Amino acid sequence: MKQKFSEEQWLWLALFLGVLTTSIGLALFAYLGTFSRYTSDDYCLSAFFLTDDLVDQMTRRYYVSSNRYTNILFIGLVDKIFGWYNVAILPALMLILFVLGLYLLLKEMERILVLGWNSWMILFLASLVALFSVLQAPALYETLYWRAGMTSHFAPLVFIPFFGAFLLRQIRLTDESIPSIWIQMVCLIGPLVIGGLSEPPTTVMITILILGIFATWIWGKGGFRRSTLILLLWSLAGAFLALAALALAPANSLRLGNPPPGLFELASRILVFPFEFILDTLRTRPTPTLVSVMMPAVLFYVHYSHSSRNISNEARNRLGILMIAMVLIAYLLIAASFAPSAYGQSYPIGRARFTGRLLMTSALIADGALLGILLSNVRVKFFQSIYVRRFAILVLMILALYPIRTAWQTSMEIPAYQQRAAAWDERDSEIRALKAQGVRDLIVPFLPDDQIQDLGDRTGFRLNRCAAALYGVDSILAVPMGEE
């Protein structure tokens, strides 16, 4: 018992170290977000709310410019709550919510499956998923630091785990009675609201819910199956309504441009694009991929090797099958997230691949955990040795230092972010000073280092009109320094 207690102390220390280092890594990404400023569509999305005719504007926007009916409301809400500098607050806030949502989702999964994970273990896993997803984001700036892109491609992945945790909690607490009408309405409205942010997360929600309905129909029993199916079907209805609203928007004809591909070409793209994405990740990100498998594998090996129970051969076979199933499910979900782009824009652009990035990271960590459980139950003296377990704890502590490396690499980008923010703040101060002097038509410096798109040198340019409306002046022109 003393020996086991000592090992558990070291395991707890390794978990604490892992939570600390992943938090540092995420904190660096959050800190970079404090240098985010308005850019490109951010001006127009905020200027949208300056009109008093909100309903008509929303309807017009749905018909002529964007099918994403929820993201504009989300932006209006954060504008109202956090004010002018909401773009600098959102990245850190969304990262915190991302980890919290993943933690609550994993906590509910642990309770349903009775896995015996403590809170530190769950927090470590949630932090791992968040860190490795953000670290390997195909277009991090557009995904997290550009508010217009973040609202469509990062925010829904923050909110989905919260809804998933709610749904799993209701399933866990349900009995043979029919869920209340209020719970059913939340299950309908939740996916409907989240789905209005963008298409890829919506298609993933639909695929997960269909798989959940299928599994419940096959393995559920009695009244529990009936009540669970009610919750899942209402959720699926909400997700389908969201996808229908996105797909049938008249604005799609402007966004798509070219006619959609034929059925065979579309199916080919949906099958091939995920394979190319996975292959590219393995080729270009070998170290994060390997570490994201090894860390949970070592953690779960140590955690489950403490148990004196040995699982049966049949259970070990099931774990092996589950590992294969996890890969296939991840491939299916990545394909679902790529389907809207395959239909409209060929291979997904960087920020649209973040859903696939999160799914692949989650699958790698899950398979690593399953591998660790299998190793802990291998009936070979080597794997059951106390020295091997202690060495594994040491390896886990070494691997837990990997996020420090990512934090150091991230810190190298701070000067560039600071410089861009300082240039934007200087121009912002100049605009406000000119406005205070009564100048209504402004000529200000162009910011060549803007990551997305800065204001232009034409008064009629869309972004210029929006920026002028936001600042309350007649016009704004942005020209290179020295050409004012």
Structure report:
This protein is mainly α and 484 residues long. It has two domains: 2-33 and 66-412, no CATH class; 425-479, no CATH class. It is built from 22 helices and two strands. The chain has a two-stranded parallel ribbon with strand order 1-2. Strand 1, helix 22 (462-471) and strand 2 (475-479) form a beta-alpha-beta unit. Helix 11 (199-219) runs antiparallel to helix 16 (313-344).
List keywords for this structure.
484 residues, mainly alpha, 2 domains, two-stranded parallel ribbon, 22 helices, 2 strands, 75% helix
Architecture blueprint of SSEs:
Elements: H1 2-33, H2 41-47, H3 54-64, H4 71-82, H5 86-113, H6 119-135, H7 140-145, H8 147-153, H9 155-173, H10 181-195, H11 199-219, H12 222-247, H13 252-256, H14 263-284, H15 286-305, H16 313-344, H17 354-376, H18 381-384, H19 386-399, H20 402-411, H21 414-436, E1 441-445, H22 462-471, E2 475-479
Parallel strand pairs: 1-2
Helix pairs in contact: 1-5, 1-6, 1-19, 1-20, 2-22, 5-6, 5-9, 6-17, 9-10, 10-12, 11-12, 11-16, 14-16, 15-17, 15-19, 16-17
What's the gist of this structure?
With 484 residues, the chain is mainly α. The protein is built from 22 helices and 2 strands.
